Amino acid sequence: MLEGDFLQNSDKILVKGQTASRGIAEGTVHIATDENLEIPTEKDFILVCKQTNPAYSILLMKSKGVIAEVGGIVSHAAIISRELEIPCIVSAENATSILKQGQKITLDASNGIVYE
Fold it and tell me: What does pTM read for this prediction?
């Protein structure tokens, strides 16, 4: 996890959401669905999904951060992310459509923003 407010105003904003667990992480996008719960080979991945449930537990534990399209600050993704101390945003509309598998991103969960 990265610390500090290093992001510049010129960085391209891809997605915005609600802060569920503060922090900053860099990694590659891994889009998960209920049908595809594969654990990626990259060790620095950020989990992107519509919403999480207990079946996502291993993915959550191995991820550098979480971006969920659905949920609030008491959702499954939010609670588990805080417990694991990884950055998380929820209510990130269309994240699974906007972000692409393997894309490198920066998740600034403290401000609820995903940068290219």
Answer: 0.90
Residue 74 inside a domain? The answer is yes
User: What CATH number is associated with residue 72?
Assistant: 3.50.30.10
Q: Which of 76, 79, 103, 111 is catalytic?
A: 76
Which residues, 6+ apart, have CB-to-CB distance to 40 below 8 Å?
Answer: 28, 30
Query: In this structure, which long-range contacts are made by residues 47-56, counting pairs with CB atoms below 8 Å and at least 24 apart in sequence?
Result: 48/95, 48/96, 48/99, 49/77, 49/96, 50/96, 51/75, 51/76, 51/77, 52/76, 52/77, 52/80, 56/32
Pairing between β-strand 18-21 and β-strand 113-115 as defined by DSSP bridges: unpaired
Enclosing domain of residue 34: 13-115
Please give the Cα distance from 54 to 28 (Å, whole number).
Answer: 22
Q: Is 3 a member of any domain?
A: no
Does the annotation count 76 as an active-site position? yes
Q: pLDDT (tens digit, 9 = 90+) per residue, 81-97?
A: 999 999 999 999 999 99
Number of independent structural domains in the chain: 1
Query: Is residue 4 one of the residues assigned to a domain?
Result: no
